[in-house]
Amino acid sequence: MQQPLAYRMRPTKIDEIVGQQHLVGPGKIIWRMVEAKMLSSMILYGPPGTGKTSIASAIAGSTKYAFRMLNAATDGKKELQQIALEAKMSGTVVLLLDEIHRLDKTKQDFLLPHLESGAIVLIGATTENPYITINPAIRSRAQIFEVKPLAEHDVESAIQRALMDDERGLASFNVNLQPEAMRQLVYATNGDLRSALNGLELAVKSTQPNADGQVVIDLPIIEETVQRKALTADKDGDGHYDVISALQKSIRGSDVDAALHYLARLIEAGDLPTIMRRLSVVAYEDIGVANPAVAARAITAIQAAERLGFPEARIPLANAVVELALSPKSNSAYLAIDAALSDVRNGQTGDVPDHLKDAHYKGAEKLNRGVEYLYPHDYQGDWVAQQYLPDRLANRQYWQAKGNSKVETAYLERYQKLHQSQHDQLKKKK
């Protein structure tokens, strides 16, 4: 029986890994481990299909160590004993332990001495937060790395590689994957490369060649094999981006009905990750300090939607969209940080004032570090005038409040009062 395409295309060396360059790119932590042949146990956590198994396989292939895979939920102590015996007989074994968050105490106690000795290099894989779900005894003996959803260009690159690979891929089928089908395959699988490759293989193997011997894969075929409809079938293939844009602009424009319409289109497409990202951006970019409470409630609703999944996720999402659309709006904080970033990127920085510098080391006082710092909590109202910005930026004001709500107006009034008091008192000191 032939293995699925995603299995066959699994990388055998670290430079074949798609994405995750923050971990496996040249000079990054896992690259360095492989380069120095100084592997340590690790826990990889992130969404399904993002490369956890691929990283483990590539590490083993690059270091020439034996590679074994077990599942913490279904494999028992006996299987672990076999791997420990193999490590004793032939050297280090890289063990990918899937669903490591389900490792029970008996198996954990067996593994620990083998991890300590280095006989087994454990690579735990989980979709759960390891800081919450994994036993501290294992967690303390492993480095924890977050594996992130693949970018669309990463998924597209892997698909192209599979289409051109003669030995492991689909090159022998003479596939013509049409552009709109490629876009949907990449988009609909939300960075899950396993789903994308297996959906592609199903499409190819279930489609008859045309008169020219080509297997033509069009948009309807991909929609069927990944079981997700395109948001629109416009010829430019940009429909999903248009709907995402329209959702944010409708909320920004306070049109509840339009916002709910575009939300419904994204829900129908099953695109929960995009909805969550977009509403998180809206909450802070477009609502911001005009209504911090509704921004916080929106994030809570988004977290509830993530836990629930569809179809129930539509309920907290609808609540969030209605509140965000009807809320007062302000992008003042967003504009303020961009103004501050502009200064930094253009070299407008200056030295941190001496009284704000770190003074928690011997000899700091001799360097005048922190000597004249005034601790605000020692003063009435827990505030005292002192300069915080570097000298060359002493009078810079980044935040330009709009006063579009009672909350933002209250912030504005306090900001103006504090700014004026600080200006007046520092002027007197000079």
UniProtKB/TrEMBL annotation:
Pfam families per UniProt: AAA, AAA_assoc_2, MgsA_C
Domain AAA+ ATPase: 38-150
GO MF annotation list: ATP binding; ATP hydrolysis activity; DNA binding; enzyme activator activity; single-stranded DNA helicase activity
Any one Gene Ontology BP term: DNA-templated DNA replication
Keywords from the UniProt entry: ATP-binding, Nucleotide-binding
Family: Belongs to the AAA ATPase family. RarA/MGS1/WRNIP1 subfamily.
Name the UniProt record assigns to this protein: Replication-associated recombination protein A
Protein source organism: Weissella muntiaci
Lineage: Bacteria, Bacillati, Bacillota, Bacilli, Lactobacillales
